[in-house]
Write a structure and sequence with these properties.
With 77 residues, the protein is an alpha+beta fold. Helices cover 32% and strands 32% of the residues. The chain is built from 2 helices and 5 strands, in the order ββββααβ.
């Protein structure tokens, strides 16, 4: 497990060896897992967002576009 992004509102975890990412919305204590092709597209989009502007505000805005997918309650982390 490798935390690749952490802000006041979100964090993104990469699960090495499983080709999987987890997005957690801290204020709602909910998360979403991205695996396979979806994980590849998510990470590609995140890299593009960082390349556009690497500010926390911009990355948080980008991650906010995924909040509809964030449905699993975070129990332990």
């Amino acid at each position: 497990m490798n935390v690749i992004y952490n802000s006041e509102h979100y964090y993104v975890v990469q699960y090495l060896g499983q080709h999987m990412y987890e997005l957690v919305v801290k204020r709602s204590a909910r998360g979403a897992f991205f695996q396979g092709d979806v994980a590849v597209r998510f990470m590609s989009s995140m890299r593009t967002a960082v390349a556009e502007e690497a500010s926390i505000e911009h990355i948080d805005e980008f991650l906010g576009s995924y909040e509809e997918l964030v449905t699993f309650p975070v129990v332990l982390h």
